[in-house]
Amino acid sequence: MKKTIYFTITGTGFRYGHEFLKPGMKVKLEKEPDNPHDSEAIKVSMKGLGQIGYVANSTRTVVGESWSAGRMYDKFGKKATGTVKVVLPEAVLCRLDRK
């Protein structure tokens, strides 16, 4: 039985904010190994909007028991999807979708 993986979306304030996100919405994840700031960066985007943020990869930005980008980096290939579960004033928690 595979463990459920939750992750936090960060950096939404640099784009659209996160107030529009609602539980049940789907997000796309894509690894960015050539990212100059973080070799384990995982971009988060939505259909029609493009990039909305990144999977949090710092103890300052990961919320609760959600996984960091580095911790979940090897849990999927180049791309994956996630589902928004909880929208908090300071963060968005999502679940990594499993096929």
Concise description?
With 99 residues, the protein is mostly beta strands. Helix content is 4%, strand content 36%.
Structure description:
- The chain is mainly β.
- Helices cover 4% and strands 36% of the residues.
- The chain has a six-stranded antiparallel β-barrel.
- A hairpin with a 4-residue loop joins β5 (79-87) and β6 (92-96).
- The mean pLDDT is 89.
SSE class: mainly beta
Number of strands: 6
**What share of the residues does DSSP label as strand, in percent?**
35-45%
Helix content: under 10%
The shape, in one word, is: globular
> In which order are the strands of the major sheet placed?
1-4-3-2-5-6
Can you summarize the main beta sheet? Answer: 6 strands, antiparallel, barrel
Mean pLDDT: 89
Series of secondary-structure elements, N-terminal to C-terminal: EEEEHEE
**How large is the radius of gyration?**
12 Å
Q: So how many helices?
A: 1
End-to-end C-alpha gap: 13 Å
Indicate the low-confidence ranges by residue numbers: none
Which features would summarize this protein structure in a list?
single chain; 99 residues; mainly beta; 6-stranded antiparallel beta barrel; globular
Question: How are the secondary structure elements laid out?
Answer:
Blueprint: E1 6-10, E2 26-31, E3 42-46, E4 50-55, H1 69-72, E5 79-87, E6 92-96
Antiparallel strand pairs: 1-4, 1-6, 2-3, 2-5, 3-4, 5-6
